[in-house]
Amino acid sequence: MATGLKGMNTEQGRKLATSCTSDAQQILTITKDLTRQLQETEWYGQDADTFRNSWTSQYTKALKQVATALEGASAHLKKEAAAQDQASGA
Question: Distance (Å, rounded) from C-alpha 35 to C-alpha 55?
Answer without folding.
Answer: 8
